[in-house]
Specification:
Number of helices: 10
Strand content: 5-15%
Number of strands: 12
Amino acid sequence: MPLTMKKNCKTVNVKVTTMDAELDFNIEEHWTGRRLIDTVCKTIGIRENWYFGFKYVDSKGYKAWLKMDKKVLQNDIPAHLVPIQLEFLIKFYPEEISELIQEVTTHLLFLQVKKQIIDEQIYCPAEASVLLASYALQAKYGDYENYQSGLLSEDKLMPSRVLDQYQMTSEMWEEKITACYSQHVGMFRDEAEMEYLKIAQDLEMYGISYFQIQNKKDSELWLGIDALGLNIYEIDNQLTAKISFPWSEIAHVSYRDKKFAIKHLDKSSPDFLFYTEKSRVNKIILDLCIGNHDLFVRRRRIDSMEVQQMKAQAKEEKARKQLERSRLVREIQLREEAVRERAELERRLQQLQDEVSQANEGLMHYEQTTELLAEKARIAEQESVLLAQKAAEAEQEISRIKLSAIKTEEEKQLIERKAFEAEIRAARMAEDAERRALEAESLKEELIAARESEKKAKETLIAVTRSQFAVLTTPSEEQAVGGETVDHEQQGCG
């Protein structure tokens, strides 16, 4: 059979952006979307390709999903866009996170949902935002001991709406988040991401694709499409559905131009009609409805051989990883014990070194003390000799003093006797002096009394004399007599 040469096919450069990488592919122009997604999934290692799709911006500026059954270049991709820009994203969300089989699928869903929460495409209250941020830190940095303060400002982990809602500084938010973060010690990345998704899947807006619609009365509404069915929301409330249409109750969905119809299984129920801005929006809605409904039905059937094989391999892989993690945890524990033992040995070694050092210091101190005591003993011995000499001299001096003390005692007794006699004479003389003074005083008083008596007697005598001779004498005679009398008195007085 002759060999046939393959015709040269034109290639197109395609840049595929995943949640954590950028991939470049040169594809042939006849490649379909299915072949491209199979190639990308094979490159990444994803086998659960039914969750994923390629999102792009069409020629009209709308975001659309690449048709898997069409050639890539037959989609409404802008002709001037080189290379072709495609986003590899989760298109159809699982009903439960636990249905995901591969770790890589869980990881990409985690990154996508985290971005949606931070960008406020999914409403998340403050308390849940803090807990989700703690799991995101655990997934990125591992245990809390590896976290460096201030990294929260580098990693945007919470919606701006939550940060602006409360009057709290970044340090206060970091304190709240790290308080939860510190409780996740020992949790591996895939476990932290799974815990994150378990919380996120309970948020009202998780896994829902929203489209703005109008009813027959031209009232603005929201249409929500998720893994369980279709939901109608008020224009100002995307959290609580006004009307719900589970996939199990929907018979058919279709559109014509801008009108979209939902038919119930219950034929007695009227069709629900709504309108969109463009017919191309209805194409996207129908595509999402078909894909979600197919997965809804598929989940309720027995798994295919491929899925069973994937689950068995995933189970074996999980068991292997669990065993490895147990070994790792054991090694970490042994390493920590070894580190603790080493630290204890180092502590004891340091303690022994300190004790040896203290013993050396004590020995040196004792040696110095011994030398000092020896010196003191030598000095004491010399002092003892000097004291013995002084004691001999003192005994000689005492003997001399005792000999001189005998003479001194006799002299002392003589002096004391003379002094005693002198004291007696002095006492007697004092008594005599006092007695003489008393006698002199008495005599003085008697003298004064006598002089007073004499004066009075003289005055009496003069008075009597003058009265006797007053009549008999003349004045001249009286004067003469008086003169004689005075002279006589003066003589008597003399």
